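Reply to dn_fold:

You asked what the input looked like. This is it:
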Amino acid sequence: MFGIADYGAFVAAIVLFLALPGPGNLALITSTGKGGVGGGLAATFGVIVGDQVLMWAAVAGVAALLATYPAAFAAVQWLGAAYLAWLGWKMLSAKPGDAPVLNIRPRQYFQQAFFITLLNPKAIVFYMAFFPLFVDPARHQGLITFGAMAATIAFLTFLYGLGMTLLTHHLAERMRASPRIGRTLEKLAGVFLIGFGLKLALSK
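and this is what came back:
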């Protein structure tokens, strides 16, 4: 299909990667918990747009550029790590009654998820290594093949984000009666964000 080798395996691999714990999933869950279905869907679109930028940057050869100039790669890597750690610290240091770290307006949820996704330079390298695994050299159609891959990833991300948003919203409604649970989950989310930031900064 469009020069993609084993399309079923390609779809299965994307679904598996979407389900792996990471900053994007955490941003989606946190956005839904604070902004409802609108916040979760806005975060989903933020992840989709961020992924599309990274995918097409990978196709354009940005990964090779970052590999050629390690200082540029390290700078973007540290920027992404610092951003995640800053978000985590804001969540950990928030006190009852403080303004939420993530505002309930969907526009800000979109931006939050977009930057969390975008500020991960390793994702560019991942896409650069991942795409060739599913390209059929005999039927490759250039940008059409990569466009079909990008469209598939965007569609699957939307379905996954919608499912996670509805599930998280359902659970949040059940826990809304206990503010202590909400504060505990926010602190836990902060710890995970700091952990993701450290992992990104210290990984080779």
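Residues 7-202 form one domain.
Hope that clears it up.
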